[in-house]
Every structure is written in C-alpha cells, then in structure tokens.
Design brief:
Layout lengths: L1 E6 L7 H15 L2 E5 L3 H5 L3 E3 L29 H11 L4 E6 L1 H12 L4 E5 L15 H22 L2 E6 L6 H10 L3 E3 L7 H13 L5 E6 L11 E3 L9 E2 L2 H13 L3 E5 L11 H19 L5 E6 L2 E6 H4 L8 H11 L1
Helix pairs in contact: 1-9, 5-6, 7-8
The structure holds 6-O-phosphono-beta-D-fructofuranose.
C-alpha cells in the first residue's frame, strides 16, 4: 500500500518522531511511504520523495521536520484541491497521513468529506486542538517557557523589576497558564479571560507594597487585556485567515511601568518555543501517535485522528477534532488565580 505523509502549519518538537514511527510501523504493514514536502504545498505542486527506513534513522530527537512545513491552504489556491487529487492519483497513493493542527487537519477533514482516504495526527505547541487531551509539542514548549520564567525570576529580583514574558498562544492560553503556574508567575493573561489592565497594575503595586520588589507577568500573544489593544506584527492574513500576532508583551510592559512606576521589561519567547529537541514525554507521545496512525491506515479507518484520552491512544473523527478549539480549563485557571489575586 502506498501511503503519503505530510506535516503542515507551524512546526513543533516531535514531528520527526511521528514520521519515524509511521515509517517503522508502516514497514510491518507493508507500506511504501512517500514524504510530501512542505505540507499541502507538496501535494498541490507534486513535490514528493520516497521515505524509506534510512531516511528516518537518527531523527527521533531532532526538532523541526524532515518533510518541511508550510501554511499552504489548497482550498485557497486556484485549482488547488484538484491538484492535490491529481498528485495522489499520479503516484498511486492510497492513503494520506496529515500531521497538523486545526488548519492542516481542517483541510484533511474537508478532503475526507470529499472521499479521500485521510488520517490525522494532532500537532501544535498551542495544545488547542479538540478531541485529544494533549497535542505533541506542548510539553516541550511549556518546558522551554518555564525555564525562561525561572531564569527571568532571578534577574527580575536582582533589579527589582517587573518582567513580562510573552509566550505563544493565539486563541488559547494553555502554554501561558501551564508555564505561568509551573514558574510561579504573579499574573497570567490569556485570550480566554480578558483582564482589566488596572487590575494587573494593582496587583503589581500590591506586591511591591508588601515588600516583594519584583513581579513576573506571563501573557499569551493573544491575551485580551482591553478592547482595541490587540497587538499584531502584520495585518496581512495567511491562507487560513490568521493575522500575525505579537507585541502584547511590549505593550503590557509600557502600561505596567506607566501605571505603577516600577521598571518593567518585556521578553518575547516566540519561536524558541517551537525549536529544538522534543522532551522525552513528547517523543513518546509522538511515537505512539505515529504507530497508531499507521494502524488506522492499515485497518482502513479513515477520517479519524489519533488522540490521547487519559492514558490511552484512541481514534476520534477528524470532524470532531476540528469543529472547535480547545480552550483552557476554567478549573485550572482558578488554581492559577489563587496565586495572583
Ligand atoms: O500555531 C502555533 C503558533 O505557534 C501560534 O501560537 C503562533 O501564533 C503561530 O504559530 C506563529 O507562527 P508563524 O510565525 O510560524 O507563522
């Protein structure tokens, strides 16, 4: 059976572990695996290459993706979806494994609805995909952000400053909430909970008044502070209709300093959260997802996504996984609030 595999959207640690697992498990199923370069772009433009066992040797611990990635949306390209079908037909591909987040898997689901044999694997550092408890890449990103917060603590304390740490999270604040909790942040600002800036300033003032002469504020890039304060790097929409967010940290730092008088600095972690080696937990999860995805293909269970529920890897319909985003658990946010007011 000829099986193609692609990685789409923002890269994240663990992609290579999934690819390796698909190829290794696929060998047992008799798959002939081909790699698609740069996500959906490779299928639109017929850019494929053979993916044998040698090609996936030594990549388990590597960040990025040996396939390359892009934010190409075939449904936004002239003749794009026909081109995808034509590429699959031309190469005799009988199944496609798409590794991605809401956008990539949303496209996968559309193709599945249109009759293509597609299986999904949930990827994103943002952890905002429904249907699965966790996406791979999230654990690594939280680890990187937590280490950054730990490091910023000592310098904030030494200089009696407020440090604002901007982390990724466009629509959901999972990374901010988890790293903020793990790193002992004094305030955590996320897209799901719009916060009055004066409340943040009050809290910082309170800390300084009580003798703690520093504070750490963690903000997701999509944090909602006040109407009209969305921070974007560029307004141009990508092919999935997203603007490029960024800058909330700098905005908050200026506002906090202005309102409290405390010297404030901003640090933007940005793509550091996506790069480098995956954590052991992500390597294991990605490997389990890859093996399971190959099994889904072998047993003809298309239109499904590998998902983690509790400790088990299960199949969930792509339609369910892409219907809506998974936002932060209000109970976990309530735990965080114990520590910041
Ligand atoms: O989708 C994951 C993500 O990390 C978002 O949190 C962020 O907004 C986006 O990727 C940025 O991606 P890029 O700079 O690669 O377009």
């Amino acid at each position: 059976m000829k099986v193609a595999i692609l990685t789409g959207g923002g890269d994240c640690p663990g992609l290579n572990a999934v690819i390796r697992a698909v190829v290794r498990r696929g060998a047992a199923h008799g798959f002939d695996v081909v790699g698609v370069r740069d996500g959906w772009r490779g299928l639109v433009e017929d850019d494929l290459f053979p993916l044998g066992r040698d090609a996936v040797s030594g990549i388990l611990h590597l960040g990025g993706t040996i396939l390359g990635s892009s934010r190409t949306n075939p449904f936004k390209r002239e003749g794009g979806s026909d081109a995808v079908r034509a590429t699959l037909d031309r190469h005799g591909i009988e199944a496609l494994i798409a590794i991605g987040g809401e956008d990539t898997l949303g496209v996968a689901n559309r193709f599945h609805q249109a009759g293509l044999p597609v299986v999904g694997v949930p990827k994103t550092i943002d952890n905002d995909l429904s249907g699965t408890d966790v996406t791979f890449g999230f654990d690594t990103a939280v680890g990187i952000a937590t280490e950054a917060i730990d490091r910023l603590h000592s310098t904030a304390e030494a200089h009696h400053r407020v440090l604002v740490v901007e982390v990724m999270g466009r629509h959901a604040g999972h990374i901010a909430l988890h790293s903020g909790l793990a790193g002992g942040a004094d305030a955590i600002l996320i897209p799901e909970r719009p916060v009055d800036l004066e409340r943040v300033a009050d809290h910082v003032r309170g800390r300084f008044d009580s003798g703690k002469r520093f504070a750490i504020v963690v903000a997701a890039e999509g944090a909602q502070v006040e109407a009209g304060t969305d921070q974007t790097i560029a307004q141009d929409l990508d092919e999935f209709g997203h603007v490029r967010l960024g800058g909330i940290g700098g905005f908050l730092a200026k506002e906090i300093e202005r309102r409290t008088g405390a010297e404030t600095r901003a640090v933007v972690l940005g793509h550091l959260q996506r790069g480098g080696t995956p954590s052991p937990r992500d390597r294991v999860l990605a490997t389990r997802y890859g093996v399971f995805a190959a099994d889904l293909v072998a047993t003809g269970r298309f239109g499904q996504m590998a998902a983690l529920r509790g400790d088990a890897i299960v199949a969930v319909p792509l339609a369910e996984a892409t219907a809506e985003l998974k936002l932060v658990d209000p109970d976990l946010y309530a735990v965080a609030e114990v520590f910041f007011g």
